[in-house]
Amino acid sequence: DGPTGNNSTEILQGGYRVDWRPYDGNKVTFQGDVYSGDAAIGNLSQNSKIAGGNANFRWEREFSATSIGTLQAYFDRTERAFDVLTEYRNTFNIDWQHQFELGERNQIVWGAGYRLTSDQTFGSPAITFTPHDVTDHLASVFLQDEFALLPDKLWLTFGSKLEHNQYTGFEVQPNVRLSWLPTEKQTVWLAWSRAMRSPSRAESDLLATNGTLPGPTTTILGNPNFVSEELEAYELGYRIQPFKSLTLDIAAFYNSYDHLRSFTLLAPPPNVVLQANNSMNGYTYG
After folding, report:
1. Are strands 217-221 and 271-285 parallel, antiparallel or unpaired?
2. Is residue 5 scored above 80 in pLDDT?
């Protein structure tokens, strides 16, 4: 109908990267960015400011020809100032991963991580969070073993990730994969895995209202009892290399989803109230 879309964006960004090899078997990387600018999101905001910066450290250590460890840590700062909501967020993350051979048949990968993210929000009658400020903690460990059932022919890969978040507690995410090479140029695989998506701050703590009284309004509420969305994934695949420069793949998959995000009607029109919930499920296949 003619009005401006109000969606222009201007950002100035600068960064650096330093790679260093202090001695044999060690690689160190320092990397970071800072940025600042304006980014409008349609009619949600007429005056918007975004800014932030990050710093990343990565150290890779080769203990032996069959043992490699990687330590990575980063800090990230984001600032988002819109008419309807302002958020300042600090995130710190550290991860360790170690890959090594155990005997002649086992390829082990294990690791652990911790993430702290702290936000400070300033809402409006349209959007607010309760509580306004929250610090989230996310801790995880994982272990995976690729075991050669028949050397150079048949491999079983199995493992799991254990994660803890403050919304739903402990979450277990296992996976199993069987790979078979009937010939040097053919591979058949069968896999099953389970993945979780833990609740976000919005699904737990949001209060958003569209419209003002005495006119009709629509209000969306978060739900402190929102649980993780779940996925179970099944896959069967085949790969062949008819020529040295050509590889062909075909795969069949079936994904089953449970506890998907939905909204429950708490109050009918004209003043609608909806609350986030987990009453949907579904599947995909192909």
Report:
1. parallel
2. no
Residue 166: phi and psi, rounded to 5, are -85, 0
Decide if 198 contacts 165 (C-beta within 8 A): yes
The two structure tokens encoding residue 236: 């069967």
d(CA 138, CA 159): 20
Q: Which residues contact 143 (CB under 8 A, 6 or more apart)?
A: 108, 109, 110, 159, 160
Q: Read out DSSP for 121-167?
A: EE--SSEEESSSEEEEEEEEEEEEEEEEEETTTEEEEEEEEEEEETT
Widest CA span in the chain: 74
Q: For residues 51 and 54, what is the distance between their CA atoms, to the nearest angstrom?
A: 11
Report pLDDT for 2: 83
Sign of the C-alpha dihedral, residues 121, 125, 130, 131? positive
Which of 72, 63, 112 is CA-nearest to residue 92? 72
Are the C-beta atoms of 72 and 60 separated by less than 8 Å?
no
pTM of the model: 0.87
Q: What angle do CA 260, 265, 270 make, to 5 degrees?
A: 140
CB neighbours of residue 268 within 10 Å: 8
The identity of residue 167, as a single letter, is Y
| DSSP labels, 80-98 | EE-SS-EEEEEEEEEEEEE
In 3D space, the residue among 164, 167, 161 whose CA is nearest the CA of residue 199 turns out to be 167
Handedness of CA 56, 61, 66, 67 (dihedral sign): negative
For the record, the structure tokens of 43 come out as: 């009619």
- Per-residue pLDDT, 42: 63
Query: Residue 219 is encoded by which pair of tokens?
Result: 């209000």
Q: What is the pLDDT of residues 127-137, one digit of tens each?
A: 999 999 999 99
The two three-digit tokens of residue 58, written as one number: 């990565």
Q: How many CA atoms lie within 13 A of 228 on its CB side?
A: 18
Residue identified by tokens 């100032």 is: 81
